[in-house]
Amino acid sequence: MSGIFGSYSFLGEPVSETVAVAMSQSILHRGPDADGYYSDQSVLIGNRRLSILDLTESSNQPMYSDDRDVVLVQNGEIYNYIELRERLLKLGAKFTSKGDTEVLLRAFEQWGSDFVLELNGMFAIAIYRKSTKDLFLYRDRLGVKPCYLAGSAEEGRIWFGSEIKAILANGKTYKPNIDAIAQYFALNYIPQPHTAFEGIQHLPPAHMVYISASKGVTLKKYWDLADVSPEPSMTEADAKAGLIRLLDDATRLRLRSDVPFGAFLSGGLDSSTVVGFMSMYQHESVRTFSIGFDDQRFDATQYALLASRRFGAKHEVSISDYETSELWSRLIWQCDQPHGDISFIPTDQISAVASKKVKMVLTGDGGDELFGGYERYLSLFPEGDGTSLSDGWEDRFAHSSGWLISNESNVLLTGELFEAFHDNDPFASLSNAIRKVPHQDPINKVLYADTTTLLSGNNLVKLDRMSMANSLETRSPFLDYRMAEFAFNIPGKHKIKNGETKWIYKKAVEPLLGRELTWGKKRMFTAPVSEWLRQSMTSFCCNILLDGSLESRNIISTSAVSAMLNEHISGQFNYTRQLRALISLEFWFRLFVDQDTVWLKKAQNGIKG
Q: Could you report how far apart the first and last alpha carbons of the chain are, in Å?
């Protein structure tokens, strides 16, 4: 686990040492254990290391081939590195380290650019061949690890990095991407490959980029979840058996570590299942961590305790004593983009707690998207088969997934943001994804869209940025690509059934979890921000949204914001989602566009404010 950064020049103009160091320092939190980079007239390729496998200097990066012609850096973990190492040894490869990075190097030497098809892991990889001046960039299949790109062959240079701030360290100015911000207003996050900055894109999951002086930039998709077809004849028994088999093996692989590790345990279905499987492979108690709130409506720590006792875990509970106003600037700074999901806050807090005791944790992320865990699926599929759907349901679902309701876009948005929202379809990333898999049933169509859009665009951003902000590695067995492929072999009718979400999954894990943990009401991992906005955060909210800064941007009607705020505070209407999204957007402008020195200092130093 770590971070990568670099650049490719088509004009033979090297990156200065000052910029190289600035790019590295910008993502120090991702890899505080070691750093290094290689540079020449054409390329800069660097790494910040968080040591998880092979803690010796032998696995520091960049890593070089024996003849020094190939240079490689990576961010992530290759879970099947032991099996790959054994295969490569039989083919004559020699190793000087015991980690997974050298396995990538030898695999590239043996199998060429398609070596990525052999990998089971989460990764962003950069490989440079000096003799041919070719650069290869890869991102893992489901988009667990990030990789951002800027520039073009026409501009003469490509920049890349694990976070946008690594690219921003090059000293160039990137304007706000109003079209992307319109998508943020539609979906509550900015779907990939778009970003909030003009000229910066997110390399899509399961893609590689080939860069050469003679051929320019080539983008290639090396794996596609849309290629998976359902198996209509699959029985419930087959689905349960396959699910358990894969989840067991995916968990086993993710326990490979040379540092202490544990698990996030909310007490929900997914995290409890992961801890249950972990407990089968460990002689000592699994270390688990959960965070709760004094407000019992949002606190689920009793369920985490129930799960920890069932599996004999060594559990640590922390009650959040923070309010959002103290952390908001830090969260947006770490994300580089506006995100309206408030669960970023407890994810940051639990990561901070866990990082004091362990260096890696397993999580349950991905289970909801693959197996149909969100309550909103029940209203869309009340019969569990999509028979009640009418023409255009894909667009209606996409529109219902956002946070603007009724005609709020007409009232709230102004200027070029209003035009961007109404002249284009800001919901298209989600609705088009639903239509991309016509061979799937309606339930799996929606799950495919959420897996490829919501999961990679929001939920995995939360997991990566908030854990990395605390120098903590996270791994989820549900994000094993084999699990994703099998999930879309399972017909949707087995996932939403009898008014239950995740029906087949629950049936499969009930013997492991017991009835209460399996069939209890779903508890969202969130924070009581609605009450905070009505009470202790009212002054903060008014100061951020109504002090004139937001109005000066000429994209938001502050009279509409003021009306929303007044109605929310008085209890006439719940505008939590709208207000928190607006606050996040305004913080993004202050930090990344205005470069407000007061807020930057608070955000970068972790000072509450």
A: 30
My answer on whether 195 and 124 are in the same domain is yes
Phi first, then psi, for residue 535 (nearest 5°) are -120, -100
Is 19 in a helix, a strand, or coil?
A: helix
Digit-coded pLDDT (tens) for 325-362: 668 888 999 999 999 888 888 899 999 999 999 999 99
Q: Is residue 524 part of a domain?
A: no
> Considering just the CA atoms, what is the radius of gyration of the chain in Å?
24
Domain extent, residue 562, equals 529-605
Q: Cis (ω within 30 of 0) for the bond into 62?
A: yes
Phi, psi of 379 (to 5 degrees): -70, -30
Same domain, 167 and 21: yes
> Domain of 472: which CATH number?
3.40.50.620
Contacts of 608 (CB under 8 A, 6+ apart): 322, 326, 327, 602
Q: What pTM does this model have?
A: 0.96
Q: What is the CATH number of the domain that holds 198?
A: 3.60.20.10
**pLDDT tens-digit map of 375-427:** 999 999 988 888 889 999 999 999 988 888 778 899 999 999 999 999 999 99
Same domain, 196 and 301: no
| CA–CA separation, 88 and 144 (whole Å) | 26
Count CA atoms closer than 13 A to 522's CA, side-chain side.
Answer: 19
* H or E element, residue 96: none
474 and 537 both lie in a single domain: no
Structure tokens of 353?
């707690």
Residue 226 has pLDDT above 60, yes or no: yes
Per-residue pLDDT at 608: 39
Instruction: Give 469-480 as a 3 state SS string.
Output: CCCCEEECHHHC
Among 504, 426, 415, 464, which residue's Cα sits nearest to residue 144? 464
Sort 118 into a burial class: Cβ within 10 Å, 0-12 / 13-18 / 19+: middle
Tokens 């990082």 -> residue: 355
Q: Are 120 and 482 in contact (CB under 8 A)?
A: yes
Q: What is the DSSP letter of 48?
A: E
Query: Starting at the edge strand that comes first in sequence, how are the strands of the sheet with 314-319 ordered?
Result: 314-319, 287-292, 261-264, 360-362, 473-475
Can you name the residues that pair with 113 across neighbouring β-strands?
none
Task: Indicate the SS3 state at residue 3.
Answer: strand
Contacts of 170 (CB under 8 A, 6+ apart): 7, 15, 19, 22, 23, 159
